[in-house]
Amino acid sequence: MKQLSDDWFALGPSYYRRLTLYKPTLTNLQNSNHFLISIGGCGGLIAFLQKPKQSGNSLLIITTAAGKLFVETTWKDAPPVAISWSNSEELVVVQKSGYATMLNLNGTFNRRFSFGKDAENSQIIDAKFFTHEGRTAVAVITGNSQIFIATSLERPRILAVASELPLVNRPFVWQVVSSPAPGDFAAFKGPWILLAFEKYIHRLGVGKAIKIDVQNPGGQEIRFSNYHRLALSPNEEMVALYLDCSVLRVFSLVSGGGLEVRMELDLSARAAALGGGISDNNRVSTLPSGLVWLDNSTLALQWSNFVVVVDMEKNIYELFYPSLVHIQPEIDGLRVLTLSSHEIIQRVPHELECLGRIGASSPAVHLFSAYREWLAGSGRAHEFLRPVLTSPNAAREMHGAVAACLRAAAHCAPTSTDAQQNLLAAAHFARGFLSLLLAAPSAKNVDCSMIDSLSEMTIQITTILRLLNSLAVEWVGMALTWKQFESLGPSTLLDRLLASKHYPLAVELVHTYQKLPSKIPEHIQVRRSGITRILCHWVKSLPLSQSASPGDAVNVTLARRLSAIIDRCGISPGTDGGVCFATVAETAISCGQTALAERLLELEPRVASQIGLLMRLQRYEQALSRAVQSGDMDLLLAGVLQPLLEGSDARLEPTALSMLLRKHPIALALYRQYLEGNANFSESRTLPKGKLASQVLAVLQQEVDPSLATQRTVREAFASKDPAQRSDILIRAKDAYHQMKLDFLAHTCEEAAKLVNFHRRLEEQQITAPYFHLDERAPGSQVLPRLIEAAAFRWQGTPVNTTYTRLVAVGIPATDRLADQVRREFKMPEKRVAYLRLIGLALSPNKAAAWTEIERMAFAKRPAVPLGVIVKVYVDAGRQQQAADIIAKLPLEQKINSLILIGQKEEAINLAVQERSEPMLYLIQRLLIKTDRAMAERVGNLRTQISSLPS
Hints:
Blueprint lengths: L7 E4 L2 E9 L12 E5 L6 E5 L7 E6 L5 E7 L4 E6 L5 E5 L3 E5 L5 E6 L2 H6 L1 E9 L2 E8 L4 E4 L7 E4 L10 E6 L14 E6 L2 E6 L2 E5 L14 E6 L5 E6 L3 E7 L5 E8 L1 H7 L15 E6 L2 E6 L2 E6 L4 E5 L5 E5 L2 E5 L4 E6 L2 H7 L6 H13 L5 H9 L4 H17 L6 H22 L9 H24 L10 H7 L1 H10 L3 H13 L5 H21 L11 H17 L11 H10 L3 H10 L3 H10 L3 H11 L2 H9 L12 H9 L2 H11 L15 H10 L5 H14 L3 H17 L3 H22 L4 E9 L7 E8 L7 H11 L2 H13 L4 H14 L3 H12 L8 H10 L3 H8 L4 H10 L3 H10 L3 H11 L4 H16 L3
Antiparallel strand pairs: 1-2, 2-29, 3-4, 4-5, 5-6, 7-8, 8-9, 9-10, 11-12, 12-13, 13-14, 15-16, 16-17, 17-18, 19-20, 20-21, 21-22, 23-24, 24-25, 25-26, 27-28, 28-29, 30-31
Helix pairs in contact: 3-6, 4-5, 4-6, 4-7, 6-7, 6-8, 8-11, 10-11, 10-12, 11-12, 12-14, 14-15, 14-16, 16-17, 17-18, 18-20, 19-21, 22-23, 23-24, 25-26, 25-27, 27-28, 29-30, 29-31, 31-32, 31-33, 32-33, 33-34
Membrane topology: Peripheral membrane protein
Function: Plays a role in vesicle-mediated protein trafficking to lysosomal compartments including the endocytic membrane transport and autophagic pathways. Believed to act as a core component of the putative HOPS and CORVET endosomal tethering complexes.
Pfam family, one: Vps16_C
């Protein structure tokens, strides 16, 4: 059986591994030195852009990580200076002409931006890419030694960095630092430049430049001419510099702006042995062509076909390759690309190192060793399991061993499928022992949730490993480690798969996240809309259909393919992980696939999503029919009114529209009312205007409908401001309804006319009364309305109830007689009259007489109004003392409520205690909990005491 550490190597106390991802055959790249190379992070595409030639255009080649050709095209723009893949999966090309051009995954132009007139005039000579606030950014140096930084590619904001150094045709190395510099310097709070020029190191910010002092360790002076390479650690806390005398120095950025030497290593002897290329001046080249950080404590140096790994303890490990090497940092290691291999060098993950390092001892190591012995048929398996099974915490240790094997298996992706299978099998092997240990008495301290979490972990890891192994196959070429997979995110990975048209794998990715109970917003979005995105991309990739007829052979084939895709995806409309077919149909319409869009709309369960798209397709009858079936009035209006919008492409002739509406009586009635300005509709809706609406209305009105004519008469009456005219029109409407035998509507019109005439007589007699609306309560009031005016002459438009109450509120015999007339003529119920009279008396300016009558109402043998309402009126009027006399007549519960209402809390509590009523105390506590918490707690204690008393 293959050992876990077969591809590991030791660098001091740490272990690193070489993961051979692919063995590409890049035969079309005869010499990689002639190309600018950028490897997409996390298993992305590889871009090769040919360096400028004296004649002819450069070549742009994009391949997968496995070397499979993805795109090959000609670069016809300005000469490139540097290229890189952005975080948004765009290929960024910085050009000599002062521009940065963004290309999509297929190598086609997306957009570009300029670094300014200075960069365009003096041209760009060098560029560096970096990450700032989670976005890809770029810095450039121009031909007149100016430095500019674009902090974002999406919305570029160009910063000018202070620099007076003559950099042109002079040796220098530089890097961009995105984190704030140590020390209190405002110029270095954002991105700033660390530049090594000749023998000195400079820190360049916006508006400020500082020369950094470097102290030699031990006071020894090193003779060198300039710095050859510079690299910044991933955490931006250390910087590595390679001197032209073959000395490697590592500095840490300290507060105050200085550099403190952390490590110094003389590589002159080793560099002389490694440098194999002959330079132009016929001397052996001993200087490395690359210097990058592998992680925050390890560096990698590259000579032509050698890679040397160095740690901070000066431990060295050399790797040889048969051809030229290109190295590039990765989030969890270092990518090494040659013409015949693609590798990742990374530190062995801790979860895997715990099982494979020499001398490791843990329950997980014992379990894995026992499984391998058991697989070989050896009796030593029991010896390895004994330390775990005999432990006092055997169940907990076995649980930890299973979890450790699962986590280690996750970090074996994407190359070691055998190790994955063995570790997963070892975890499964231990589940049987774990079941026995959980049944033992010593397992009482094991929480059941631990077992559930172990099951969830098993499902998650095995599901994702299956996906990672599928992505790693050579024809897909997206090998991802576990850390890269977590960093990349499902949304970006889905975009990559769609760009490569790997639709089955894209579906598998969505199904993977549908199985995982993750609550991360990005994961939820992929679960819910992933299949929709896949179908939209598939629709965009289809060739343009020449026929809109569903019966066309091509459209029939597309419909069959759509059905097959839906069946294979196992999706169902309307579910949480289903498809929004309306979104896919909208994409199909924009791509000219109208027949496919109709088929997609048939699968969409939400009628509201169908209507607008059917109108765009000019399928008016289908839209109207489905809107009527939905029973949604607003949706129906939207469906039938859109053809009337001026300037819209969806237009019907008046006759055709009227014939269509006659097929649906509900839509016809609603449409007619809407055109005629039915008052039932919201005022915010604007009526359709113009010649077309008038023509349709004329066509519809050819049908005689007496009820609609009478409705227009009623609306005309209420639109009139003359009371006499309004009354006459209402009488005519009453007669018309009588002829149609619509007695209820006739009676309603008669009552309305009677009220208009009564109001007119009141205004002729110049009777004034308090003005208010019964449905508007005064602030803090429970019964009485808010008084708008103490005496008002307005009567028209006042309802019957308000008219009666206002007349009572005047408080004189004449208005009392008029109020009694209203009661008789409009046949008001006695209980309503009593309630309205109580409100009118409480609002009357004649206080003495009014409150005397209210007292008589309260102390009557059988009050016409409930005493609780009368108490609330007293409280609203500020007469709490008089209310106390009425409270004595109330039942216990109402009495307590009323006492709390007038502020007599102690009396309410004493009354409940005297009755030994625990429910009444609970009522008091509930009433006081928001206003007097201390007293509410006291009532709670009394409840406890009463409930503990013997019954």
